[in-house]
Amino acid sequence: MITKFSLLDHNKHKQNLLNLIDSIPNLSSNIELGEQVSKSDWYLNSSYPRRYWDYFFNILTPWFDHMEDKYGHKISKMQIANYWFQQYLDSDYHGWHTHPNSNFSNVYFLELPETNMTTEFKDHKPISVKEGDIITFPAYLLHRSPINSSGKRKTVIVFNSNMCLI
């Protein structure tokens, strides 16, 4: 149900992605919506260029191959429904939520200072991940990002996907 994939050459791409994310305007989140995120492009106008995504998408081919292997079918169409990044500083969090209107949610751990800061799932055992991993899970699964108490920044790139199998 929940799969994990280690992105090849994570260390090679990490700083490039962080530099591209740094160029995005600083918009914070809405505590009233159950989140406190220091920086994200979720609320940024959709027409704003997101060069980090263009870069990231170009290194995702091995993940697409992994998904085909996982499901034992050729994927005839993979649609990325939406994407965004989030940076969590001290005391930041994202409460329990789901991702409607998509088959899968995917979280790439670009910066993960401590393994206890990974995505948590309601009624599921913890998932062991490290920096550079992508977790893929059904978008209806209730999940959250726990409070960052590490004193270090956590950065994730999140994308929702839909696929048609042959």
Please describe what this structure looks like.
- The chain is of the alpha+beta class.
- The protein has one domain (about 5-165): Jelly Rolls (Sandwich).
- Helix content is about 20%, strand content about 35%.
- It contains three helices and ten strands.
- The strands form two sheets. It has a six-stranded antiparallel beta sheet with strand order 1-8-6-10-4-3.
- Helix 1 runs antiparallel to helix 2.
- The longest helix is centred in the N-terminal third of the chain and has 13 residues, at about 10-20.
- The chain is globular, with a radius of gyration of 15 Å.
- The two termini are about 20 Å apart.
Quick structural overview:
With 166 residues, the chain is an alpha+beta fold. Helices cover 19% and strands 35% of the residues.
Task: Give the SSE layout.
Blueprint: E1 3-6, H1 10-22, E2 35-36, E3 39-40, H2 51-58, H3 61-71, E4 75-88, E5 93-97, E6 104-111, E7 120-121, E8 133-138, E9 143-145, E10 154-165
Antiparallel strand pairs: 1-8, 2-5, 3-4, 4-10, 5-9, 6-8, 6-10, 7-9
Helix pairs in contact: 1-2
Distance between the termini: 20 Å
How many individual β-strands? 10
- Uncertain stretches of 5 or more adjacent residues: none
Per CATH, the superfamily is q2cbj1_9rhob like domain
- Count, helices: 3
**Judging by the overall fold, what is the CATH architecture?**
Sandwich
Looking at this protein, list some descriptive labels.
single chain, 166 residues, 6-stranded antiparallel beta sheet, 4-stranded antiparallel beta sheet, 3 helices
